[in-house]
Amino acid sequence: MRKARSAVAAYALAVFTRHPHAAAFISSSPRYFSTRVSLNMGKSNPLVENNLPEPLLLGSGSFTRKLILSEMNIPYHKIVREIDERGLGDRSKDKPRDLVLMLAKAKMDHLINEIQAGNCNDDLPSGFTSANECVVLTGDQVVTHAGNILEKPDSVEQAKQFVTGYASSPCSTVGSCVLTHLPSGIQVSGVDTATIHFKPTITGDIIDNLLKEDAPVLSCAGGLMIEHPLTREHIDRIEGTEDSVMGLSKDLVIRLLGELRQKLLENAK
To answer: Do 59 and 123 contact (CB within 8 A), yes or no?
Structure first.
């Protein structure tokens, strides 16, 4: 089992949650954090390493995915075109891995169609056209608990129901990542999972406390916001990586970039 030690989460705690004790919590919690945050210092660019164009076009509005890419030193440009996620798939029958892959690919198909149709010209990087070489990233994530697939809660009450259940049995995150190279259309994809074991001390009341601090709980799959100190104090352990729980596995992104490079080389022969 890998312990979750993501500097990304530390950055999220100190900068994004505005929690008054976040910095102190990070420095006093070696169980979760091995280093202080040092974004983009002395790190290589995985796109350059794989001879891939930059910036990455990020088809996601998730602040944690942006945060993770920044921590990986991957330059990106956000460009999002929404789809009706709830109208796709069958949550009662689909396997979580199949569902998140299907949704990420649906987001990718829609975004690429919009780019190629010229409907994104105003949102593309300066000087960029649909004819430029680029790599596009989309993703999706669900939380699973007690055999059920949990997405973003529809209400505060539903978020409380989700969280209350985590006290009795662990929940898992299932997250997908899809990379597509343009103009070739070559695509790679994968899924990563992590399991969070909570202490029995966690209750639905935490949702009210998070909302008081303007935490975007209702925008998180399963109402799960492990990067916040109020949630973290109730975590017993995490099987997997914290960046995976937060929506984008760094290990998966690195692997997929390598796979994409290899496929492009094979295609060029």
So the answer is: no
Phi-psi region of 185 (alpha: psi -120 to 50; beta: other; left: phi over 0): left
d(CA 251, CA 122) in angstroms, rounded, equals 32
Read off the tokens for 123: 């949102």
> What is d(CA 188, CA 207) in angstroms, rounded to the nearest whole number?
37
Q: What is the pTM (predicted TM-score) of this model?
A: 0.80
Count of positions (residues) in the chain: 269
> Distance between CA 247 and CA 221 in Å, rounded?
9
Which DSSP helix (H) or strand (E) runs through 47?
helix 46-49
Cβ count within 10 A of residue 211: 14
Distance CA 189, CA 204 (A): 35
Q: Helices (DSSP H) in 142-232: which residue ranges? A: 156-165, 205-212, 229-232
**pLDDT, tens only, 128-160:** 876 789 999 999 999 999 999 988 899 999 999
pLDDT digits (tens, 9 = 90+) for 69-119: 999 999 999 999 988 877 887 777 889 999 999 999 999 999 999 999 888
CA quadruple 233, 234, 237, 239: dihedral sign: negative
